[in-house]
Amino acid sequence: MIEVTKINGSKVLINPDLMELVEETPDTVISFTTGRKIIVKESRQDVKNLVKSYRKEIFAD
């Protein structure tokens, strides 16, 4: 799971395996395969880096 900050300031953990699309409109919107969307404070690049770090951690074991 990766931690992101919703636009209202609350922190949430999300499953990056369910992420389908990350776009900046100018807010960063994460769309999931379930159809749900959330707006986060992190930039698109920050989300990408979080996912990369998560995957490195998972596959390092």
Structural class: alpha+beta
In percent, how helical is the residue content? 25-40%
Distance between the termini: 16 Å
Order of helices and strands: EEEEEH
Give the domain tally.
Answer: 1
Largest sheet: 3 strands, antiparallel
**Annotation, overall tally of beta strands:** 5
* Overall geometry: globular
**Tally of helical runs:** 1
Runs in which pLDDT lies below 50 for 5 or more consecutive residues are none
Radius of gyration, in Å, reads 11 Å
Average residue pLDDT: 97
Strand adjacency order, main sheet: 3-4-5
Topology:
Layout: E1 2-5, E2 11-14, E3 19-24, E4 28-32, E5 37-40, H1 44-60
Describe this structure in words.
This protein is of the alpha+beta class. It has one domain (2-60). The chain is 28% helix and 38% strand. The protein contains 1 helix and 5 strands, in the order βββββα. The chain has one helix at 44-60; strands at residues 2-5, 11-14, 19-24, 28-32, 37-40. It has a 3-stranded antiparallel sheet, with helices on one face. A two-stranded antiparallel sheet has the order 1-2. The longest helix is centred in the C-terminal third of the chain and has 17 residues, at 44-60.
Short description:
The protein has 1 helix and 5 strands; from the N terminus they run E-E-E-E-E-H. A hairpin with a 4-residue loop joins strand 4 (28-32) and strand 5 (37-40).
Provide key terms for this protein.
two-stranded antiparallel sheet, 28% helix, single chain, 61 residues, 1 helix, alpha+beta, 5 strands, 3-stranded antiparallel beta sheet
